[in-house]
Request: fold
Amino acid sequence: MASTVRHQRLGTWNGVPRVRLATLPTPLEPGPEFGGGPRLWVKRDDLTGLGMGGNKARKLEFLCGRALVDGATCLITVGAGQSNHCRMTAAAGAVLGLETHLVLAGDRPEVLEGNQLLSDRFGAHLHFTGAGPSEWGSLEIAREALTEQLAAQGLAPSSIPIGGSTAIGSVGYVVAFDEIMSQCRDVGFVPRAIVFTSSSGGTHAGLVAGRAAWRATHPGELVPDVVAIGVAKGVVAGFPSVAALARDALSVVGLDGTIDDSDVEVDGRWLGPDYAIATPESRAARGWAAHNGAWVVDDVYTAKGMAGLLGNIQQGRWGMNDDVVFIHTGGQPEVFVRHES
Ligand SMILES: Cc1ncc(COP(=O)(O)O)c(C=O)c1O
Reply:
């Protein structure tokens, strides 16, 4: 039964294995007026559908496509305690009939909430490591150890690094770049900028690669700035190398395009003290998003992304003739986790 489901969903994009998991295209919604400021459009990647949606559905289409072609019998991945990527990998495992293991920061709470509650409901095995919220290195080591352990037990694991940010995962956002440009063309504009929240860098790399491929096939046409709002210290400090990941993503799909380090822009001014710590600007942005578009943004990721978008608008980066697309990358389950603030 499960294998029939898998095969109905399996295909390719530009020759790269892809298993259909997301509801695409996601909507492109007009935002409110900013007197004298740009026109805002919100690309609703929070509505990709898989296990309550978010950007990771696009990456998982290619990561799981590869896993199925390789004959994987289980999925393993890793993340922060409230990782959306882990929750969506658990959802993909449920859809595809693959046992799923999640290596998580922190200790098992008495009551599972938010993404953890959903991951558990999707049937994933949750492995709490006790690691601090952004101890990415030790989490990756724990993922590798678990991968070896499960392989020794006779499983064939497909082990996915943090955020699904490999060259193959990034292909999901090469596809998204095309999707955004086509939707904007249908409405009648070329965006001046595409703004989004970035942490492990795969979404960013895919968009940079998509733009490079677009430039190569549309010479002389305007292309948008790709503006990442960094919400984790690593990405703000320039790790991982988004340019290298973007070049690898282009070579995976066999598309032409040139990528320089100057193609990579990370605006790190909205991170605040650290990953997952709300800031005055992100709290204001989550209220603004709720009141102006009923967009639900979370404190870890998308509220900071939205704070970066609004901050750049306030600082006059774009004028009234500019159209700016904000990709809402999801994160809603975190809103239901109890916090002190
Ligand atoms: C809701 C949300 N937005 C944005 C991101 C950042 O995406 P990336 O890891 O590809 O940089 C994540 C990553 O987990 C996320 O969960």
Q: What stands out?
A: The chain has a mean pLDDT of 95.
